[in-house]
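To whoever is on call:

I kicked off a structure prediction for a single chain this morning and the downstream step that reads the tokens threw a length-mismatch warning. I double-checked the sequence; it's 180 residues and nothing unusual in it as far as I can see. Pasting both halves so you can look.
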Amino acid sequence: MNAHPAGTPEVYRPDVCVASPALVVGASSRDVVGGRVYVDGSALCRYLPLAPHGEEWRTWAQRRVPALVTSTLAVLELTRVASRGEFRTRMLARQVAGRIEPVRFSDQALACAAMATSVLAPFAALHLGVAVTQPDVTMIATYDPALAAVAEIHGLVVVTPGFVPGWWDPAAHPAERMSG
């Protein structure tokens, strides 16, 4: 792996959604300087009270809000989960949605998602399509193991506060896939 002069790993950003080897072997969110973080619905929901690993997520995300981007799909997932809660929970979801910059579904993102549906559920494929095709996104925040695995193949650094790095790969962590 080639390193930039500052010692940060080189991150491959495909112009199109094609399978490519992950060039960020062993990288964590602390290793990548710059770039934006796409937040899927499973991560966005960690803002809600009593969410598993919510405290770890909120601590990690609080310092990075300007770098976070999300989609209307992730906001819809957050809203759906929050709708089951009390009024305060629903209002918190609205505040969270208003704080994180939304990105649109481009034609390229939809094409990528269509290709990824052979290995991902439709919503996960849409999240992947948006993350991979945003030129300034280098990381994805997700708690979805299938999405994490495929995102890594596409060169995105996977961020999952509260989980051990590589938690989605049973070969890397056969005994314990998640911490906490």
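Update from on-call: the warning came from a stale cache, not from the record. Cleared it. Sanity check on the structure: The first strand starts at residue 36 and ends at 39.
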